[in-house]
Amino acid sequence: MQNARVGVAHGNQLSFGRLQGVAPAMNWDNAWFPPAIRPRGVDVAKLAFFVVLLVAPVRSAAASVPVISGPTTFVISDCNDARIPLRFIPGGSLAPIAIRTKDIVNETPKGAPVGWSISWDKPLLTDQSIAEYQTLGTLNGGCPLAGTFDVPLTISLGGTPPSSAELKFTLVRIVDPVLDAPVSVMLPLNIWPFGVGGFDESELSIPLRETSYGASVDGIVAVGSELKNASGELAGIMLISQPNALKLGAGAGANLGMTLSQTPDPGSYTGKITLHAPTLKQNQAVDVTLKVRVCWVFLLVVIGLGVGLGYLVNVSLRQRAELDAALLEGLRASAAIAQRAAAQKDPAVQQRLINLAAYLEGQVKDATTTKAVDDAVTAAQSRANDIETMANKAATDFGQNLARLRSIVQPSEVPLDDAIDDLLASLKQTLDRIDRVGTSGDVEEAQRCLQQLEQIWAKGITNALRPWLVQLQSALDDLGPWADANAEPELTRKALKEELLQAYAISEPGKLVQQCDAIARQLRSWVTLTAPGAIAKVFRVAATILVRGGAAELGGTISSQADDIVHEAAGDQDPLATVRKLAAIRTKVEELFRRSPKASGDLIARLAQGDFSGAAALLVGPAPSNVAPSASRDVGPSREPLALVQRLQTELRDVGTPPAVQPRLLVPPQLSVKQTVRIEVNWADTPVPDEQAKWSFDPTGNAQISNATAHGTDMIPLKAGLLTIIFGVSEFKTAATTYVGDVSATQNYRQISKQGRRANFLISGVTALITIFAGYEIFVGTWFGTFGDFFSAFLWGFFGQFGLDRLRDLSKSIVSRPLT
Q1: Which residue pairs, CB below 8 angstroms and at least 24 apart, start in 128-131?
Q2: CA 222, CA 241: separation in Å to the nearest integer?
Q3: CA angle (276 as vertex; 273, 281 as ends), nearest 5
């Protein structure tokens, strides 16, 4: 019988055998004996011949050679329950009692040793008519590998002595092919972005291997299916096998190539393939997960592109836009400082503010960072505040200083006497001129002139009043003295002389003016109301004595002089001149007395003392013979005061000339473009040179001039911005800066504004593209075109998505993800 797992190849494929009683020719020298038991010194051939002679009788007892009566070739596919049914005919009368397997020889490869063997059951008689026996063989010691093996057997026969016979059959080990295929496989597929360039089919391969190591698998094909996307919907892409079938040798492995009907979009797909081969007992299914992604190189490219665009937008363009905005703000700040100059009346303050605006504009142009612009603007605004504060303080100080000096020469409570006021007229005129300069707005120039005036102020007042004091003292000396010291006019004359001495010793200008004013007021009242009447009374008393004493003519003349005194005092506004006229009349009266034939030294002495009544009494009485004529009264201090007045006038000239106002350009701090404006030169106290004037501008060509002279020119500004006007004539040269038009019309402002708009436009363009692309990727997966879809997409672009700051906020959740 035949085992189900053993295949039998029919046919008498009996190997060679030995015929009983026949010894085949052989080379006994080559007969194999183990070296350990080979007899030494014995001829091997003779020994073998002797053994044959001994065995021949025994072998002759057996009948003919045993043969295999059943199949001679057995095929094994499963070693677990392999049974080999061997049928044979012993060929003699002796029954077989046992079968043993000799050394099995491998045919492929030839002669390779094996590690397994076959054990046999005791032979049983199955057909007595033909003396046929059967035994079952069982594999032990392992399972043979796939191949063909020659299995030699030794059959032990009964009898005495026992004998044996040999048989040989062929064993073929075949193996069912086993295809090792994964139950599920994940296939990564790298593609080019946007479906450009297709994909690499070598990545779509499933690893297969034949694991029986004994049989090959031919004609392996895969039946694919349509892929499904992550949501379970059919993607319309077929997973198909390569056209050529795959063949696997025993124990060999290979990749089964697959392909797709079209290039899929990036994402995750699932599908199933069925593996089929003719030699396989059943088909095998493999679940395929396809991870389609754009090649990682493009990820690096996109990241690099993001880095590049991020630097361009977030660093370069953003800094450029911020810098341009700061530059525009800086230019506006510069223009604002220049406009603040228009509120100032002082040209020097205006020029400082405009020059500060020009300096700030230069700083802004050269700035490379927003911090530099902010620092420059902050510093300039602080400096502008300081300039305005200093200007206000200078105006306040000027007003206070001017009022202080004016209060000296022009007190507000009670006006100075006209005589003193006339003496101080030059200083008052200088103050008025300086006041006009300050009132016109040129406070700093006025303050400069006032400071120069203060340097000569005290000496100027002293030298203006002291000559008057000296002259008044001389006039009072010429008018007096008078006999009665306790009566007018001597009482006031002596008081005035004492006050004159006190005033002359005063060095403080204010007190000196007050003292001189008090003297002048007292003098004016005295010479107008008191002194003329008192002097006329003295003269009339003397005239009366003369008339009564018989000198009627002289008395009448003196009486007429008394009338002249009253008349002269009433018609003169200058008290000092009045004193001098009164003194001249006294001198004339004294001269009348001296001409008298009775004049004597005693008479002249009385005249010098102002005792005109005593002199008249002496004149009408007997003349003393022993009195010599005395010196005239003209020995007083009149000569010394005259020299003093001359010296004081020289000192006054040495004080120095009053301060002069410097020439300057009168330029408005703010001008309009293409509107004619008159630029004038204020020469003030300086003579106008009779030479050709030169006018120029910086920047050159930003203005046109006409009717240019040394007094001024007509100018038409052509461009907005800072404009410096330069004027020169002879050796004099000056310049003034003004601001033309609005800052937004300047070339720098327009250029920087254009750069800022370009940078912001580029930023907006980049962010718009990012917004559109991101919105498309977000909505395309669920897009059906309903009203809700349209409205959602519209809101995405409308509310807050379009903008660099918004995109930066949206990206925080992405860039802050932890690394895994």
Answers
A1: 130/69, 130/89, 131/89, 131/90
A2: 5
A3: 130
Chunked in runs of 10, what are the mean pLDDT values of the chain (820 residues)?
40 32 37 40 48 44 71 84 86 84 76 82 87 89 82 85 85 83 86 74 81 81 86 85 80 85 85 86 87 74 70 75 87 88 83 88 87 91 90 87 86 83 88 86 84 88 90 90 91 92 90 91 89 90 90 89 80 81 90 87 89 89 43 40 47 52 77 87 78 86 85 88 86 84 77 78 77 75 73 73 62 61
Q: Are strands 703-706 and 694-698 parallel, antiparallel or unpaired?
A: unpaired
The reply to whether the predicted model has a pTM over 0.70 is no
**Cis amide leading into 481 (omega within 30):** yes
CA 188 remoteness from chain centre: 46
Structure tokens of 302?
Answer: 């996109």
- Maximum separation of any 2 CA atoms in the chain, in Å: 239
Q: Quote the CA–CA distance of 62 and 159 in Å, as a whole number.
A: 9
Q: How many CB atoms lie within 10 A of CB 21?
A: 12
Annotate 189-200 with DSSP letters as a single string.
EEE-GGGTT-B-
Distance from the Cα of residue 665 to its chain's centroid: 42
Beta-carbon contacts of 736 under 8 Å, excluding residues fewer than 6 positions away, are 347, 351, 664, 665, 667, 724, 725
Q: Give the DSSP per-residue string, 263-297.
A: PPPSEEEEEEEEEE-TTSSS-EEEEEEEEEEE-HH
What does the angle CA 464 – CA 424 – CA 505 come to, to the nearest 5 degrees? Answer: 40
Q: How far is CA 15 from CA 152, 166, 355, in A?
A: 9, 10, 128
Here the contacts of 674-679 (C-beta below 8 Å, separation 24 or greater) are 674/716, 674/717, 674/718, 675/716, 675/717, 676/714, 676/715, 676/716, 677/714, 677/715, 677/716, 677/717, 678/712, 678/713, 678/714, 678/715, 679/712, 679/713, 679/714, 679/715, 679/725
Q: How far is CA 653 from CA 377, 658, 685, in A?
A: 52, 11, 19
Residue 682: CB partners within 8 Å, gap ≥ 6?
Answer: 661, 663, 664, 665, 666
Residue 516 to residue 495: CA distance in whole angstroms: 14
SS3 label, residue 636:
coil
